[in-house]
Amino acid sequence: MSKLSFFIRRTGQLFVTLWAVATALFMLFRLMPGDPTAYVISPQMSPEVRRQIIASYGLNDPLHVQYVRYIQNLVTLNLGRSFHSNQPVTEVVANYLPNTLVLMLSALVLAYTVGVTLGVLTGWYRGSQFEKTAVVTALVGRSVPSFWVGVIFLWIFGAWLGIAPMSGMTSMGTAPSGFLDMILSVDFLVHLFGPMVVLAFYYMGYPLLIMRNSMLEVLADDFIDVCRAKGLSERTIMFRHAARNAMLPVLTAAAIAIGFAVGGSVLIETVFAWPGIGREMIRAVLRRDYPVAQGTFLVLASAVVFMNFIADLLYGILDPRVTYD
Amino acid sequence: MSDDDEASRRRFLKATATAGALGMTGLAGCGGQQSTPTEGGGGGTETPTDSGGDGDTETETGMSMGDPLPEYLYLNNPPNYNPARHDAINLISERLNELGFNVNVQVFEWGTLYTRASQEYDYSFTTWNRGLGVDPGRRMPEMFHSSNTDPGGGNFTGYVNEDLDPVLMEQLQLTDVSERTDLLFQIQETINTDVPMHPIVQMPNLVAYNNQQVSGWVDHLAGYYHFQPQTSIEVDNSDNALRGSWSETLGTLNVLGYNNETKLIHQFEMLYDKLVRVNNNLEADPSMSLATDWSRPDNQTVTYTIRDGHQWHDGETLDAGDVKFTLEYIKENEVPLYSTQWQQIDSVERDGNQITVNFNNPLGPVHTLFSNQIPIVPQHIWQDRSDPNNANITEPVGSGPLMFDYWDQGSELGLVKNDNHWNTVNYDSRVWRIIPETSTNWELLLEGDLNYLPFSRIGRQLSQNSQEESISVQQTSGDGWWHFSQNTRLDGLSDPEVRRAAVNAIPKTAISDQILYGYPRPGWNLIGESFGQFSNPDVPTYEESLEAAQSRLEEAGYVFGDDGTIHFPAN
Fold first, then answer.
1. Among all residues of chain B, which has the CA nearest to that of A266?
2. A33, B112: Cβ pair inside 8 Å?
3. ipTM over 0.85
4. Model's pTM, two decimal places?
5. CA A16, CA B189: separation in Å to the nearest integer?
6. Phi then psi for B290, rounded to 5 degrees?
7. Which of A44, A316, B86, B132 has the smallest number of CB atoms closer than 10 Å to its CB?
């Protein structure tokens, strides 16, 4: 199978997957117990007005009518309006997603930079005290709840030492003139540091362990001995030859991690009062705000599916041994 | 409970059951009619003998008895939704079971719980927080009128009392305060006698604040977000800013298109003016109102004189035309949030700086039911908005004592002082930070980064932090309570005597003192002392005692089985 055929087939699969996800989300939220109008209708409203509101949400239509309307809207990228705030869901996503992405991507960059480097070193120095310490740290990072690490971080650096801000993306009373202005300000970077480090500590373990295992496999290959026989320095062998060949599984993991990053980290966003999409997503589920819940989960699912797709394509490009049969 | 305790309790129950049988014999002679002083209450008119099954049995002591009371379902919220209320419901259920009820507690998330109670009536007991607002009678018909027992109608307890129905309606039409008070007293007397709904605790209004920076709070029934406390407080910090927080993001700044959420009421209260506001004596107060004067030619008409020289936040003049526009606009567009108000409007007329509103029906307490409910919006901005409910507003223009400054959605809302208001605030700005984590809020309050917590949930953190030197808690009686509602449609609970016994079993003091750290007082009346002259101090009260509950049931003819469960009287 040619690369083009593979691309076309994977693109088709992508759309089928997205349709299946959209359908599953539609059904899932309607199967959940609880009346969405219970959260949005004021006790002040008369029964007729309540009925009007329910009708305006389309919730009194048969399920198949609601589904067809939902898919039709989806095709035109219309995710509906929030039951809760009447705001278009696309605006909700546009408001919160950039905040999430800037946190998650900076944390992932930090985690993968540190994690991959430590992974290379732990693989290279197998059996050393350094390896043991790094692996244990990675396992601890993955095992300890990130919200707990966040709370401890805030307690020590925020409440006790008073050197880290305890909430939000900017200092209280700061009125940012725009998103770009905000993220380029020192105040923002100071606020970003805490949640970024805590998240990076959690994410770091995965690339570290993958890279270490991959390095161990590569270091057992014959070409490493050939490199040594050629008189190459240890540093050159480690980073230029061994690490580059061991990188492939990490790249796949990174692509998928970026997809999941779109969903944010609910716990970290909550602990650090970071106004991200993860928090809104969970709130939408809890208050049965179907349009926002469906929309945000769909964006998340799309990102994961799309990044998987990219990872598949990258595999073929980065490793010529991969075939498309 | 130990085995010894259980054995002695059974002995006690057997003994009291025997005594109860004598009482029941007497009752039987009354032709199955209720012998309680609440005969006229009517709520749940079935007699104990009506509800008994056919399968009479006998206790070990030879007492004849009917079927046991059915199993009852008490709806509970998840512990993470409201931990204190979750614990309180479990405690009440334990006490009811100890009394001899068979109560099963089931936990549901809020939407499901509310739907089961208010739409499906699939419950026996239910509890959440309710409030009356600034008018003690406004919600009474919704909660207790027999025409509101259909799903979603508001009277989810199914309480029917045809004698009370006209009183519930008439009190909303009387302009004479003393006459209205008489009717409200009658309603309180009846509801506290028939107890379809009863307060477990009277929830207070409270606000925690940093006393190094904020002072001068005044109490108000509506809460500390109200215009009066907000314009009374003084702030002492470097930027003269009042800084609060809330756990949830503000979804919209559309004053005509929100869902009456407290976090938004707090903002709109200060961004917009209202025709008439009531002060903490529940009196219409021109010093806080857009109208400087008003008159009632009859009980279907009200005329307001609109304040001269007032301006919108964008500098445009606010006049009577804006008021007329607002009232007609919400009616034309059938704005859901103000449906109770626009449905009352027949017509609005303007004469210079005077606005006359003609109502469809007589309206008694016009200011608490109408004038203080509707925010006045600028015509020059809203007249181009055809769908007010869905308008996406990010920079609201009002006329209140605080003006919009910035809104970083999800993070913060900044308001600044309106120097042109006739009743200015004593600080330069108010910042609302969105901080979901409670412990962070408290830490920031202690450090002075925040200086008040507008939503101070009663709990361990409030109790502990209030001991700190820099933290104070301002507290006053509120308009709300945790209600203990009983589904009067069910066998057993259709009998007011059973409902009263259930109320006797509620450990109100333990809930107030232990679970709620002593902040609320035990519940006693739906219209509590915070409503001043409207609160009836002589309503029937209920001793917190299982013995009192047992005696009550026995006197009504109910029998305690050998295992302590309550049985209907024998046929």
1. B436
2. yes
3. no
4. 0.83
5. 65
6. -70, -35
7. A316
